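W.,

You were right to be curious about this one. When I first looked at the sequence I had no strong expectations either way, so I just let the prediction run and decided to look at it fresh. Below is the sequence, 477 residues in total, followed by the output.
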Amino acid sequence: MTIKPAKQLSGNGDNDTKMTVDIELLKKYDQPGPRYTSYPTAPQFHDGFGPNELLQEIQTGSDTDQPSALSLYFHFPFCESQCYYCACNNIVTRDRERISRYLEDLKREIRLFSRQIHHKRKVVQMHWGGGTPTYLTPQQISEIYSLISQQFDFSADAEISIEIDPRRLSPEHLPTLRRLGFNRVSFGIQDFYEKVQQTVNRIQPETLSRQVVAESRDLGFDSVNIDLIYGLPYQTVDSYKETLNKVIDIDPDRLAVFNFAYVPWIKKHQKLLPAERLPGPHEKLKILKLVIEKLTSSGYVYIGMDHFAKPEDELSIALKNNTLHRNFQGYTTRAGTEVLAMGITSISQLKNAYAQNVKDIITYHQRMTSGQFATSVGFRLDEDDQLRREVITELMCNNIIRKSHFEKKYKIDFDSYFKHNLEKLDEFRSDGLIRDSGDLIEVSDSGRLVVRNIAMVFDKYLAQDARKKQPIYSRTV
């Protein structure tokens, strides 16, 4: 079956995915802002929400006639070496006993969660992130996967994905993952330019990256994603063009091209990077322009923010059908699920609440051995939060607001309820970034590039975030 590519920005010629980028527009709207993997965002989480509150929310979600399907997330924080750009929650160690102890605690948490889950609740999505999940041995991966399979009921078409560092793979890793049931893999590459790799302490030969993608194809994984980063030291438009050419030749199903967040006051190891060699703001925007125009010229659909996918990919189809969703793992087609997250720092996303685990493995071990959830902070949403979350999600994912939907669901008059928020849309409207047509507010083709800024209009917490001394958000473009 042939699926027509989703219509994209500034369609050009016969290429329905092609889009063009106005750098001046990006400059105008480039400012710090949330990524809206959640609303309210993580800075609003507080320690008044703990293990008991999490248990209450899980039980509430299970005590219904039709409980939501589940998405599971597992955090494996360990890495063998430190990539200097990394902003993830990771632990660099070569102590295998330390890893084994963590896995025993993770098993305890798996059993703790499963005891609270209604037997009718199906798992439709699972993701392993890190750190480096494949720093675990194939045997350790098999043990954890087997326990999860015993404790939770998976749907036959569950999406099961894992993040992979190609440098840490043995010959047994990929075959083991496929045999167990993983059907999606994501490989970190970041940049092929050797000078950049040396500077960020991540040497990864092009031949290795090509090899692991080819092996994944041979093993029958349904989808291969590649992660890149722009904004690293020594990157230029010309050097990054070469990386993109090679990646396009590798032909992944999806691409995530992340904007490097330089936050040395949070991630101390980033001080090891030569700040004077970071591309300047204008050069960085030119690289972003290159990324979007080159990938969409090559047939990839711009999903939103950092993500691209082939036209036949389910993300592209969901974008076309206005059914795209978003959670802490990024864009997804599995809307309506509750995310149960396990491991240090991980964040569960429930119908009415968010709950983040403790960030250190000592406290995590203490919680697990005492039979308590590892929740450190969280947030319970009120009705206004839920309304604004849905508005922001629809903007971020599907680029449209149908006022009548929200009026019917939340028993409000949309224009009156959001009167002061809607007034802030005037500049976006005059710049051609949104358009109003009675019941609809639609993000235009150009507006999709700055949709985070548009979504910020409906965020009631940003004013208090702005009063904090230290920057807490990455830039919006």
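Here's what jumped out at me. The radius of gyration is 22 Å. And, maybe more interesting for your project: Confidence is low (pLDDT under 50) at residues 1-14.

Coffee later to discuss?

I.
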